[in-house]
């Protein structure tokens, strides 16, 4: 992904699909930098939290443990993340909430 810069267009929506390895992969620092930039610019990312461990999801507590402190302090989790459940009925609700948010 290309690095956002001050000369980039204004970011209106930044959707992040959070799962167990979001902040632990070797390239996680790239996402962390992008998120810090977007937050500093005043845009609040839309967070979708994968809760299905069979598809790479995890509990929110686990996600918090792996989230860099700088992101927490910058307000990444100020709006509550939209839960992404494995059950199709719940997933439809998640999609509706996501669509309304965007």
Question: What would you say this structure looks like, in words?
Answer:
Helices cover 38% and strands 12% of the residues. With 102 residues, it is an alpha/beta fold. It has one domain. It has a 3-stranded parallel β-sheet with strand order 1-2-3, covered by helices on one side. The longest helix has 14 residues, at 88-101. The relative contact order is 0.19.
Q: Strand portion, in percent?
A: 5-15%
Poorly predicted residue ranges: none
Adjacency order of strands in the biggest sheet: 1-2-3
Distance between the termini: 21 Å
Number of beta-strand segments: 3
Could you say which overall geometry the principal axes of the C-alpha atoms support?
A: globular
Q: How much helix, percentage-wise, in residues?
A: 25-40%
Major beta sheet summary: 3 strands, parallel
Q: What is the H/E order?
A: EHEHHEH
Q: Kindly name the structural category.
A: alpha/beta
Tally of contiguous helical segments: 4
> What is the C-alpha radius of gyration, as a whole number of Å?
14 Å
Compute the number of structural domains: 1
Mean pLDDT score, rounded? 89
């Amino acid at each position: 992904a290309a690095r956002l810069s001050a000369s980039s267009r204004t970011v209106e929506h930044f959707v992040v699909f959070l799962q167990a390895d979001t902040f632990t992969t070797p390239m996680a620092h790239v996402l962390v930098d992008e998120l810090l930039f977007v937050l500093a610019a005043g845009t609040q990312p839309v967070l979708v939290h994968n809760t299905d461990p069979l598809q790479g999801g995890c509990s929110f507590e686990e996600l918090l443990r792996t989230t860099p402190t700088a992101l927490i302090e910058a307000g990444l989790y100020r709006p509550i993340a939209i839960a992404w459940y494995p059950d199709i009925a719940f997933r439809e609700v998640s999609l509706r909430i996501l669509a309304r948010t965007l």
